[in-house]
């Protein structure tokens, strides 16, 4: 159980039925989509680390599409600290795809199928099809299945040797905002995510998308008990979770976020900073909303008006109710 | 199991020359040449990282000064320097680098008027109150002595030697490179120039004359200025994304400067405002620092004396650790838990982030915390001219006391005295 599980648990009846005991899950249920947004003073990397650590601990296959260009070595260091070291690249249970914007990528020796180009080599237009094609072979094979039959397609809904319901891969689309800034249109990125989600859902996998959302109004700036939308253009049904645009400045990010939320099928974790600035006691706030999750499953709900606060520490993350960072009000 | 086991050789490669290990992780860091700046970055710029320095002040060039420090310390520590930009400006940038004062080597304080770490003994033999004798002098900055001296310039012989040995390399901006077959895309007409620079940089980084023991410092000089062509916001972001992926797996780090106009207003192709532009830039690099000098707003200079500008740390390296090392170790930033947890709660524990500024003295550039003066700010009395009050009295309109006049008690007190004087004069 990693640091966010007691505070943001998921409930998956299939898993509980298979294991025989009801317990909160650290991972979103199979066939669901979790959107994670963050801001520059409070990056949401820790939430992704939590989910990856949980997936690796449960022998789920993880496919990380690194649009940010973060690199594998950083994750190796962090996940080792969290107690779930990354599997070797040759193991097949952790796939790292780094779509590249470099010119003439074929000349790079490190370029292979793991680095699909983000721009067409002849027209220089932004394209996501190579990334989708590079991603497709990795969706659907769970870690246990790939370990038993490497390279063969797994059968969804099959029973694993432990008796648990076999599930697909955890696919992470990390850094969708970076695509917008490089010239991708929100509608194209939205289509790409929808296509990946359709494939992930058919294989009982889990999709996680990360997006920077500095344009959203701060969580703690709202009065207590506030619910409703602060934006007029957005009509997605995320109950009590306003996500209006603070200004017209970040229309592309707002449009993409709206498209992601309209897909439904999961939930939204929103990481934001404090209005009072950086602090040693509180690194930021996190709230969660359910957004039409798959039938029979439950996503955590933490309202914007009463968010959880967290503090990053060297080897873990402390999560606590607002105002109780040092153990007292 | 035997009592003695044969110890195998370490599998991790040795850190390149000119780097030092991070205080918390084993990640090699490249110092920027400014100790107080390194404090903000928790020791320096991580190898494989990118640092963006914004300087929106059009009347000064603070980002160029930081870039010169970055290059100068690279020449001193046997790193390889690569400057990407217009060749003339690139060479001028290196030529103006500060250098070491040989006479001051090996001792002596290089302070100027304000000794860092000086004790409570006043200057000129003055004795201060006994209860303050044991106290250290209030410090607004950190870091030890800096070998680089702003009064010294890089000797031409050293520059020639560095250029001839390819320790100092320049990458010009042109799009007629033979290997560059890219056609200008719909997003950016100037992309061939940027692509050519990236291809040449990749070629230089891939030639490793001394194995992995050579660290490379890359300076992207004035990215997006007229020399780079008509670069759009999307082109700049694509360049930063490519640069990051290029450096991640190589022993190199980059410092990027933007022209002042691009730090003030977004380039073409960006629909949002300036804040959203800066935020997007801060996400696209590992660290983003803004040096907002007082050149454009001279009225701020006396308020913040002796500072020359304010510093904003938009982002800092967050990779290789859950808790960003800047938060963990930076004394100047002031949010380090190790610095506050000892007090056991209350008081200053968990205090917010410090306000930061910078100043360039005669010999060195420093980042400092911003504090009010001894008298709580400006010591000047700010009052309305007497004739205005007289006019007001003459027209029968009583002057408002303390409303909109000056700031704080000094201004209000002055207004009150002026009004009383005018009242006595006019009966």
Automatic annotation (TrEMBL), chain A:
It comes from the Eukaryota. Residues 97-118 have a biased composition (Low complexity). Pathway: tRNA modification; 5-methoxycarbonylmethyl-2-thiouridine-tRNA biosynthesis. Residues 1-30, 93-123 are annotated as: Disordered. Coiled coil: none annotated. GO terms for biological process: tRNA wobble uridine modification. One of its GO terms (cellular component) is elongator holoenzyme complex. Belongs to the ELP6 family. This is Elongator complex protein 5. It comes from Saitozyma podzolica.
TrEMBL record, chain B:
Residues 1-33, 336-357 are annotated as: Disordered. Gene3D superfamilies: P-loop containing nucleotide triphosphate hydrolases. Residues 1-11 have a biased composition (Polar residues). Residues 21-32 have a biased composition (Low complexity). The keyword Nucleus applies. Pfam families: PAXNEB. GO terms for cellular component: cytoplasm; elongator holoenzyme complex; transcription elongation factor complex. Pathway: tRNA modification; 5-methoxycarbonylmethyl-2-thiouridine-tRNA biosynthesis. Residues 342-351 have a biased composition (Gly residues). Keywords: Cytoplasm, Nucleus, tRNA processing. GO terms for biological process: tRNA wobble uridine modification. It is found in: Cytoplasm; Nucleus. Belongs to the ELP4 family. This is Elongator complex protein 4. It comes from Saitozyma podzolica.
């Amino acid at each position: 159980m990693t640091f966010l599980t007691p505070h943001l648990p998921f409930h998956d009846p299939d898993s509980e039925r298979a294991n025989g005991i009801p317990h909160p899950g650290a991972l979103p249920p199979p066939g669901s989509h979790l959107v994670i947004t963050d801001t520059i003073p409070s990056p949401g990397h820790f939430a992704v680390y939590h989910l990856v650590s949980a997936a690796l601990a449960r022998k789920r296959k993880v496919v990380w599409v690194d649009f940010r260009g973060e690199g594998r070595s950083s994750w190796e260091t962090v996940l080792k600290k969290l107690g779930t070291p990354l599997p070797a690249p040759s193991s097949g249970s952790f796939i790292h795809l780094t779509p590249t914007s470099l010119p003439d990528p074929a000349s790079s020796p490190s370029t292979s199928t793991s680095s699909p180009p983000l721009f067409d080599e002849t027209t220089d237009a932004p394209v996501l099809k190579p990334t989708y094609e590079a991603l497709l072979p990795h969706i659907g094979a769970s870690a246990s299945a790939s370990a038993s039959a490497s390279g063969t397609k797994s059968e969804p809904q099959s029973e694993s040797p432990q008796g648990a319901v076999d599930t697909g891969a955890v696919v992470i689309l990390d850094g969708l905002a970076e695509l917008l800034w490089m010239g991708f249109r929100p509608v194209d990125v939205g289509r790409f995510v929808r296509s990946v989600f359709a494939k992930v859902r058919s294989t009982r996998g889990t999709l996680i998308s990360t997006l920077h959302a500095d344009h959203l109004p701060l969580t703690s700036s709202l009065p207590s008990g506030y619910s409703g939308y602060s934006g007029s253009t957005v009509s997605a049904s995320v109950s009590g979770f306003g996500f209006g645009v603070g200004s017209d400045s970040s229309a592309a990010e707002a449009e993409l976020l709206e498209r992601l939320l309209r897909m439904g099928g999961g939930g939204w974790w929103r990481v934001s900073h404090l209005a009072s600035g950086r602090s040693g006691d509180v690194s930021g706030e996190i709230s969660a909303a359910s957004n039409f999750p798959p039938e029979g499953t439950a996503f955590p709900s933490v309202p914007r008006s009463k968010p959880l606060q967290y503090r990053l520490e060297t080897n873990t993350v402390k999560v606590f109710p607002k105002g109780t960072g040092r153990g007292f009000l | 199991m035997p009592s003695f086991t044969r110890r195998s050789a370490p599998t991790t490669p040795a850190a390149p020359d000119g780097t030092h290990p991070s205080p918390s992780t084993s990640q090699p860091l490249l110092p920027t040449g400014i100790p107080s700046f390194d404090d903000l970055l928790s020791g320096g710029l991580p190898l494989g990282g990118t640092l963006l320095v914004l300087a929106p002040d059009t009347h000064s060039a603070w980002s160029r000064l930081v870039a010169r420090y970055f290059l100068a310390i690279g020449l001193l520590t046997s790193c390889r320097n690569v400057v990407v930009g217009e060749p003339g400006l690139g060479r001028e940038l290196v030529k103006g680098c500060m250098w070491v004062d040989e006479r001051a080597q090996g001792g002596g304080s290089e302070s100027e008027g304000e000794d860092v770490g000086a004790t409570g003994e006043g200057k000129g033999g003055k004795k201060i109150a006994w209860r303050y004798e044991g106290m250290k002098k209030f410090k607004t900055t950190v870091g030890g002595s800096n070998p680089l001296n702003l009064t010294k310039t890089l000797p031409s012989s050293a520059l020639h030697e560095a250029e001839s040995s390819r320790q100092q390399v320049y990458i010009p901006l042109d799009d007629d490179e033979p290997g560059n077959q890219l056609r200008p895309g719909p997003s950016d007409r100037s992309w061939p120039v940027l692509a050519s620079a990236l291809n040449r940089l990749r070629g230089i980084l891939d030639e490793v004359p001394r194995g992995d023991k050579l660290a490379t410092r890359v300076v992207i000089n004035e990215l997006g200025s007229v020399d780079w062509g008509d670069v759009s916001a999307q082109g700049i972001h694509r360049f930063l994304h490519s640069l990051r992926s290029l450096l991640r797996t190589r022993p190199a780090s980059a410092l990027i400067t933007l022209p002042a106009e691009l730090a003030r207003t977004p380039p073409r192709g960006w629909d949002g405002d300036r804040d959203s532009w800066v935020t997007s830039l801060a996400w696209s690099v590992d660290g983003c620092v803004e040096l907002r000098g007082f050149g454009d707003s001279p009225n701020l200079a006396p308020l913040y004396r002796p500072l020359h500008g304010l510093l904003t740390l938009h982002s800092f390296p967050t990779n290789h650790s859950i808790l960003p090392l800047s938060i963990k170790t930076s004394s100047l930033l002031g949010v380090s838990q190790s610095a506050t947890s000892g007090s056991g709660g209350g008081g200053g524990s968990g205090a917010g982030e410090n306000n930061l500024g910078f100043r360039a003295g005669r010999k060195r550039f420093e980042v400092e915390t911003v504090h009010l003066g001894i008298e709580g700010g400006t010591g000047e009395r700010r009052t309305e001219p007497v004739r205005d009050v007289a006019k007001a009295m003459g027209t029968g309109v009583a002057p408002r006391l303390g409303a909109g006049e000056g700031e704080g008690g000094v201004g209000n007190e002055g207004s009150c005295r002026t009004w009383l004087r005018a009242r006595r004069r006019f009966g």
